[in-house]
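Bumping with the actual sequence this time:
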Amino acid sequence: MSMATTESAKEVSENPMRRVQLEKVVVHICIGSNWERLQNAVKLLESLTGRKPVLRRAKRTIKEFGISRGSPISCMVTLRGKDAEDFLRRALEAVGFKLKESSFDKFGNFSFGIKEHLDIPGTKYDPKIGIFGMDIIVSLERPGYRVKRRRYRKSEIGKKALITKEEAIQFVKEKFGVEVV
């Protein structure tokens, strides 16, 4: 370990405002213009997460795919707290606790896809619903990020408070036992 990493690790252990934590997990399934499949995706997300999904609408018309502006094309659920952590563990198990380094952005967030929802432990095949793939988007933060989101006296976050790609990778390795390839 280099001197700089030792100092930053020491600083994180001493200062509780420097620790990285899970902010939210977004589960997203995009279908397209097929209304019946979209309803099945809503049922699936509701059964996987225990939350009611929100329908997302198309921003523009794409004639090749039969999508018109304003029509519902996908559904998503946002999970926070203990629910987010539990679902993320199950989702990471579906991909074998392996993530690509390119999945992480420079602000410490990461995302990955699951090809079939049947890979998630504890799910069973229902012929009425079918098989769906999904995207999992994970957002990380430090304590004090509320300053950026609050309504009253909103303020910017300093550069030291931002999460780097390396810190996010380290957090995921320690917290969830993920191997980053």
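The tokens above came from a reply further down the thread. The CA atoms of residues 25 and 84 lie 6 Å apart.
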